[in-house]
Amino acid sequence: MATSRSDLDTGYSAPSVIQRRWGWLLTLGVVQLICGALAVLIPTAATLVAAVVFGALLLVSGASQAVHAFTIRHWKGVALHAVGAVLYIVAGVFCILFPVSGALTLTIAVGALLLVDGAIRSALAFSIRPRDGWGWILASGVASVFVGLLLLLGWPLTGMWALGLLLGVNLIFLGVTNTVLAVSFRSRTSHDPELDAVKHA
Questions:
Q1: How many domains does the chain contain in total?
Q2: What is the per-residue pLDDT across 62-83, written as a single tens digit (0 to 9) for each?
Q3: Which of 2, 7, 29, 47 has the maximal Cβ count within 10 Å?
């Protein structure tokens, strides 16, 4: 009995789905490599841009929260919700108007984020071992932990240049990882008869 496309799709694991979408992974890797290279070449500018972008995100978040608070006024938490929105907006304006101070604060936040992200990626690598690419995922996780520690241990000196530089290095590492995985998946897809059948179904 012939196997339908839906039958094949429901039998695929998550790695197989990613394998079939290797082109998107390759695009992501290339974009990460380009952004990482720019950040390494101009680390101070990258740091300040990161602070301004972070401020803009806080502004959008605060504005959205304020709209939500004042459109649903008949509930007990509206005052606290509104205060939270104001704090987000003030923090966003502060980061945009004073990117240097914002960068110093952002350095701490990003350092902590990289530590958590690296730990999660390392755990993911061991959970999919021994699948192809697990070593690259583990290496990228360890790199994230290392970058996070450098940011936090060198603060506040790292606040003006290291954030952009180290994030650039991290992006390059992620770009290499995703590019290598995409090429590996492409190679496996071209030799997998089931996946080839799905593409031409």
A1: 1
A2: 888 777 767 766 665 667 767 7
A3: 47
